[in-house]
Design goal:
This protein has 531 residues and is mainly α. The chain has 29 helices and no strands. Among the domains are: 1-153; 439-531, no CATH class. Helix 3 (37-47) packs parallel to helix 5 (70-82), helix 22 runs parallel beside helix 24 and helix 27 (482-495) packs across helix 29 (521-530).
Length: 531
Amino acid sequence: MFSNMSKPVIGPAVSQVLDVIGEIRVNRLTEDQLRDSDVIRKWFSGRLRVFLPSASGGFLHCLSTKNLSCDSYQQILREFSNQFDQMDQMRQELVVKYFIQPFLTKNSSDSGCVSNSNSSVDWLQKYLGRFSVLVSLSDLLKLNTDFSPLSALEVLSPKQSAELVVLPLPGLPGKDVIINTVFDFLSKSPKERRLPEFLYHLMRLSVVTPVGCTVYQTIFVRLYQAMSALPQQMEPIIWASVYDLTESAPMDCSLVPVNQQCPVSSHNATRVCAGVDSSALQQLLDSGISPGRLCDYSIKQYACSQLKDLNAENLVTLQKCKLSENNTDSKETWKLFFTKASAVLDQALVHLSNQSKPVIGPAVSQVLDVIGEIRVNRLTEDQLRDSDVIRKWFSGRLRVFLPSASGGFLHCLSTKNLSCDSYQAVFVTLSVNFPDTTLRGPSLPVHFDMYHCLSVSESQLHAVVGEQGVQERAQNAPSPEMEPVIQAIIDNLMQTAPEGKDVIINTVFDFLTESPKERRLPEFLYHCQAL
């Protein structure tokens, strides 16, 4: 009668009742009956089924001592697996501790149940069932020395996959092979394969388990690759892992390749958020903050909150009000803020690009530096050489920030392996925005030209700039900024082979003499004489 019920029996006395039934029924089964899977099926898939979610440690331990055949053991395990969702975590762990592990570690000739499996996945499913996710990877290797975790990634839990990456486990390939194999597997279907949970356990384990610098470096390479390859919704989660793992890494470990041309702001959330109270803001964010109150809180408070519900319109509003203020937040703060809001950053930049005037404020330059780090620096070689991609970024998403571009941003950009078409797309956008550029000594767009264009050969220069570009430059450049251009031309003349100087000189004079006043021939001659 009980076995016909669809749901298990629930109550405080169920565990004791099963203990008693075990004493007066299960303990009286003969050796032959215990090794007969049909008899075991009748008892555990039938008569005792509704009691199993309440099995006590005593009942389970007694059961593990029986001389069960592998088939009988699998039959019992299968029924416990069927009841897995009906158990609380404590009961699930009791099954592992008092039944599965003791049985599989017994020394009798048949009870190891290792040789009866075709693969590591098959062994886990047959002999641990749904309880396999509760067993540590090191314990799995002790239960079966032939077990191959890399061959069983599809049935490992996120925590077990993190253990595979972090823990020093015997008989496995090098950590670089393990890390790349695990990330390859998880990246193919990050949501279904629970990449966020893996990253959470990776962070937790790295805090308590010393890991070498090379392991961190390999992990960071894969994290940055994942940010470019995975859905944008995953980006804030990956950035959070970058920040967390940075704090647990060895102090002298360089986690990203050092590029003196394109320095990267540090990832130190602890330092940014020290003494910051963002609790009131977090409450509002969790309950649905109204657009009218977005600007009531500082960027640092936002950077130290969870921003999963912040949308693109919210981010646009925040940038407009915070960038127009006398903002003194550091690059570290802006970077933490933007990485937490990175899922909607691109969409927000598109919205901002629709406004006619540039964004103006003391923090705009730093903000563009940070966007350069987390967006432009992650463009691939193919993307950098694709003028359509470059145009989308520089004539679109970044356009309103470009008048405040720093020398660092432009110099870093000049080191990229841009195609001539890509360079011209950037150059044209800088030229259009040139009149609005804040003058800070020599013109920053001129610096960009000098690094990337005027230092190359005359033929390359003409191919990149073109007649229209030269005319726009001459018409828009303010007079005080002529000197760096002339200096670059003279430098180029001095470095050019003698037979090439006449071509350059004639080209420059042909251009200037067509409209000497508008093209400022007197200034050119003055600077030529001075230089």
